[in-house]
Amino acid sequence: MEQEQEVTNVSGIVSSNGDVGTDDLLGNLRQLRADAANVFGISKVMEVPGYLGKLAVEYQYINAEVTEEIARSVRRETKNVNGIGTNLLSSLETLIAASKNVLIRKATTDDWVSIDGREHWPESVTRYVNFRDNMKLANLLDYEAGDSRELVLGLYGSEHKVVEANLILSRWLTDKSRTSDEDFLG
């Protein structure tokens, strides 16, 4: 049986002229709403399982329009097979769309650096590496990938890891205040 909670009127929080102070409840809620609406430039670094904390991907915020287009595209692609593979394809496409940069470090105590850092890799790598348009990552890690989907699948190593990464990324897209610890601890 659910307990009833007493609801207090907030009229005492707002001054008579409608102003809200920075220390009051409504002022804090307004600031939280403004912060939540500011999504541009926000990114999340996620370690790739299996690389002992030495390889990660920096993902950027993508809006609902992008994820809806991914859903439509995958539905069209899997229509003739009754939707088989939809979850994996959606996960792959979301990770591809949100990828910003692939990061490396020598030890887990080091800072992340872009995998394209000239001090670490051959002269032929000239810019950041993401999943959308760059097969150089597969070459650097010595595996073959014919397209971006194969690139991501090869990097993560299994379909289940790809889907798990997408679940973590999707949770972050809906709540950008989550930290990596919260993602893995629930």
Describe the structure in brief.
With 186 residues, this protein is α+β, with helices and mostly antiparallel strands. The chain is built from seven helices and four strands; from the N terminus they run αββααββαααα. It is globular, with a radius of gyration of 21 Å.
Shape: globular
Main sheet summary: 4 strands, antiparallel
Give the uncertain stretches in residue-range form: 7-16, 179-186
Q: Give the SSE string.
A: HEEHHEEHHHH
The pLDDT mean sits at: 78
What Rg, in angstroms, do the CA atoms define?
21 Å
> Strands across the major sheet, in which order?
1-2-3-4
Q: Got a strand count? A: 4
Total domains, how many? 1
Task: Give an overview in words.
With 186 residues, the chain is an alpha+beta fold. It has one domain. Helix content is 41%, strand content 10%. The chain contains seven helices and four strands, in the order αββααββαααα. The protein has helices spanning 25-37, 64-78, 86-98, 136-140, 148-156, 159-174, 180-185, and strands spanning 43-47, 55-60, 99-104, 113-114. The chain has a four-stranded antiparallel beta sheet with strand order 1-2-3-4. A hairpin with an 8-residue loop joins strand 3 and strand 4. Helix 2 packs antiparallel against helix 3 (86-98), helix 3 (86-98) crosses helix 5 and helix 3 crosses helix 6. It is globular. The model is unreliable at 7-16 and 179-186 (pLDDT under 50).
